[in-house]
Design brief:
Elements (H helix, E strand, L loop, with lengths): L7 H9 L5 H19 L2 E4 L1 H16 L11 E5 L26 H8 L3 E6 L28 H8 L5 E6 L5 H6 L3 E4 L19 E6 L2 H11 L23 E5 L9 H16 L3 E5 L7 H23 L6 H10 L4 H21 L5 E5 L12 E3 L5 E3 H7 L2 H6 L3 E8 L5 E7 L5 H14 L9
Parallel strand pairs: 2-3, 2-4, 7-8, 7-9
Antiparallel strand pairs: 1-3, 4-6, 5-6, 5-12, 9-13, 10-11, 12-13
Helix pairs in contact: 2-3, 7-14, 9-10, 9-11
Pfam family, one: Amidase
InterPro entries: Amidase, Amidase_CS, Amidase_dom, AS_sf
Protein name: Amidase
Length: 456
């Protein structure tokens, strides 16, 4: 096994035990970037010199016998919305031409302090306002979309061009590309990971979180991003030697999450839910509250908030935006304050309804997206009942509820469809329940083979 193929957990352990040099790992990842980047387009910029400097510093600290954190000496990619002092934050847009960040974002600070080496800035759909990331190609099929808006981050991890990566998620932008590329994506509880220095899309809905090749890796990355959150104890199973998920109540949706879902996706997710039950969980049928209002509430918050942030540039240089993003930003200027307040009220009502739901279950298991990666340029998804749906609407539909409630959501791969494309299952929890999701996800991946492999 080459160092670039190692999971975050195995690489960090090897560094701690002095079996692997951070320099060796970073060199291997950079070589892998050189090999796959021409085909995949995961990176907006590769920061080889910076990565080598950080790797040498990490190696010196390891040699001095200092206590090393969970990501020390590993190679990370940051979505190109995340500020790193002295580097451009391009946000996938001509609007940011010539921009250089003056200071590190909070997450960049924390990862650098934890000993991670930045190997590059990963492509994003322009200003995170889209679900395909057109600059980047799917790691499994170059003719298909990577997903978005953190598409570059997901493809870098899936292909071994980063040990782990960070993305942002306003309506699924971590989970969608992770699901479409067969890796793990965690949208943490709202506010758990700080957003200082991250270009916003929607202040009410934005999250930052890790994309990794295993659920265990996601827990390690979260412990570096959110000091005080303990990966070893959060959501730990009760002792007693029983099945790993004994006592866990898994909500199985009767509505919303399985409406208009590809049959292959539904079958894989239901089979994975059955596997959780075999591991000791108890299935509980649940009614998803206020599903008919999800899209209106989500768009009622995101669209005007995005337009408010971009207002000055939209007035002075609208031609610098891509056509799709410009249309959304211009539409947002027509949303009234009253409409935005109604959306906030709907969000509050929805969060309360979901809190009542979580009084009876510990998590909800559902598809991450209703369909696997579509072909590049495809604009609509057709369903068996004759209905059609825009690709972006389809991809955000099942992810948006967790952004509205603020609870954590984890996607992990649970199979492939008839075309061999990855399928993701989403575990959704109550605010603060990140550890519960990670516990369930880790139990599943321990019972199923194949987690952590790099896409050839």
């Amino acid at each position: 096994m080459q160092p670039f193929e190692m999971t975050l957990a195995s690489a960090a352990e090897a560094v701690r035990e002095r079996r692997l040099s951070p320099v060796e790992l970073v060199d291997s990842v950079l070589d892998r970037i050189g090999e796959v980047e021409p085909d995949l387009g995961a990176y907006a910029a590769v920061t080889a010199d910076r990565a080598h400097l950080a790797a040498r510093r990490a190696e010196q600290q390891a040699a001095q016998g200092r206590p090393l954190g969970p990501v020390h000496g590993t190679a990370v990619a940051l979505k190109d919305l995340i500020d790193v002092a002295g580097l451009p934050t391009g946000a996938g847009s001509r609007v940011r031409a010539g921009h250089t960040a003056a200071a590190d974002s909070a997450v960049a600070e924390r990862l650098a302090a934890a000993g991670a080496a930045l190997v590059g800035k990963a492509h994003t759909h322009e200003f995170a306002y889209g679900l395909t990331t057109p600059q980047t190609r799917n790691a499994w099929d170059r003719d298909r979309v990577a997903g978005g808006s953190s598409g570059g981050s997901a493809v870098a991890v899936a292909s071994g061009a980063a040990t782990f990566a960070l993305g942002t998620d306003t309506g699924g932008s971590i989970r969608v590309p992770a699901a479409l590329n067969g890796v793990v994506g965690l949208k943490p509880t709202f506010g758990l990971v700080p957003l200082r220095g991250v270009t916003p899309l929607s202040w009410s809905l934005d999250h930052a979180g890790p994309i990794t090749r295993t659920v265990g890796d996601a827990a390690l990355a979260l412990s570096a991003l959110a000091p005080g959150w303990d990966a070893d104890t959060a959501g730990a199973p009760a002792s007693g030697g029983g099945p790993p998920l004994e006592g866990l109540r898994v909500g199985v949706p009767r509505n919303y999450f399985f409406d208009r879902v590809d049959p292959d996706v539904e079958a894989a997710v239901r089979q994975a839910t059955d596997r959780l039950v075999e591991l000791g969980a108890r299935p509980v049928g649940v009614e998803i509250p206020m599903g008919r209002y999800v899209q209106a509430a989500h768009w009622g918050l995101m669209v005007p908030e995005a337009s408010a942030y971009h207002g000055p540039t939209l007035r002075t240089a609208p031609e610098l935006y891509g056509a799709d993003v410009r249309a959304l930003l211009e539409a947002g200027t027509a949303v009234t304050a009253a409409d935005h307040l109604r959306a906030q009220r709907a969000r509050t009502m929805m969060a309360r309804a979901w809190a009542r739901l979580f009084g009876g279950v510990d998590l909800v298991a559902a598809p991450t997206v209703p369909v696997t990666a579509v072909r590049a340029g495809q604009e609509e998804v057709s369903w068996s009942d004759g209905a059609s749906e825009g690709v972006a609407d389809a991809y955000v539909r099942l992810c948006a509820p967790a952004n509205l409630t603020g609870g954590p959501a984890l996607t992990l791969p649970v199979g492939r469809d008839r075309h061999g494309l990855p399928i993701g299952m989403q575990l959704i929890g109550a605010p603060g329940g990140d550890g519960v999701l990670l516990r369930a996800g880790e139990a599943y991946e321990r019972a199923e083979p194949g987690f952590g492999a790099v896409v050839p």
